[in-house]
Amino acid sequence: MAPGVEELQFPQLEIPLTINSISPILPASPIPASNGDSLYLSNLDDMIGARVFTPTVYFYRSRKPGVIKVLKEALASVLVPYYPFSGRLLETSDGKLEVFFGPNQGVLLVEARSEMTLVNLGDLSVPNPAWTNLVYYFPNEEQYKVIDMPLLIAQVTQFSCGGFSLGLRICHCLCDGAGAMQFLSAWAATARLSTLTVNPIPCWDREILRPRDPPLVQYPHVEFKRIDDGSSLTRSLWVVKPVQKCYRVSREYQAHLKSLVQSQSVGITTFDAMAAHVWRSWVNALDVRPLDYELRLTFSVNGRSRLTNPPLKQGFYGNAVCVACATSNVSGLVNGPLSDTTCLVQKARLSVSEAYLRSTVDYIQVNRPRRLEFGGKLTITQWTRFSMYESADFGWGRPIYAGPIDLTPTPQVCVFLPQGGDDDSDGTMLVCICLPEAACHRFRGLFCLLDSDNQLLC
């Protein structure tokens, strides 16, 4: 393999645990919402891709007593300024969601215990699908159910060694990644300092993102379009359950990859180069046919800095991301140079302007897509820009690991993660992706190997 790229292994295991209690956590003091009140959600909050829960897990080695009590009290306190988390989603007559408030709602905190130790879990630097039961799901819960669900579900699992995990499911309709980090940071700071601590002050303000009247759709928005699956790509991932693969990629390797394509275009970023390389390697490894089939690469772009009329307030924690989309046929990806694919990613990223974001809001208002579209698509989620480790210090130090668990339920998603533990400041990235077992070796070769002239083989 190339210097700076390491395939990470994780054990197949079962984590038996006992659930000791399931408790609603209500705001610690009165909130500015009464029974029967509702809050507006923007179309970015309510797009079909946001109607999901995002599961994450955080591991801690702490042996300090009173973990549950501290987490509960801090959560109740922070639910006062972040009171929308204590509501429920309700669908209105036109199919749009809003946050509704009723009696005794709150969020959910689950206490669990396992006789295993953290050492038994293997390498805690790489996400393992075996950790799934460290996050709570209701018995017989429907996939993608968000209506009438607690909008935050937390599970604290204590291990026999004294360490514990915090498994979270946060409804994406309430916040994007940046907003989730803002909420988590407030909860952690409140626990750590034993007093309510919110900085910045949370701001709802979803009305700023209302559609125009009449709506004005200025772009084709191919990121949302339904594409009949006339290729082998989606079938190869959904017919056979794929496996999750993770690679540790050094900062030096990322810089080298960027340098290979930087001369072809001004302003290429590390993300542009990495996303293009992963996309090409993935499509090539899957041997997608036919060669003239149109493929899509989608990824989220933070629109906060792009919104100026009016700008979002500092404490805004709602969805302010826009879906960028690069397109290419199979032949262009697998036979063309990496620099061409990188320029496609760069162009898609730069196309997300305030006008594009407003057009997205209006497109959803007019069309309101009802189903997730996977045809010919890979979605890359960039978590390296989130302060997951810094935000999750509840007073027991930074987590050993912070991030997602199992990508295989949506195998057309790839995640870029920061390196965890004490070493995440060096720019190392984890790339996690799903592949059929038969394609894993080919992907590893395409993604990792360099030739004798230090050039990419693909």
UniProtKB/TrEMBL annotation:
GO terms for molecular function: acyltransferase activity, transferring groups other than amino-acyl groups. It comes from the Eukaryota. Belongs to the plant acyltransferase family. PANTHER family: F21B7.2, TRICHOTHECENE 3-O-ACETYLTRANSFERASE. This is Omega-hydroxypalmitate O-feruloyl transferase. It comes from Anisodus acutangulus.
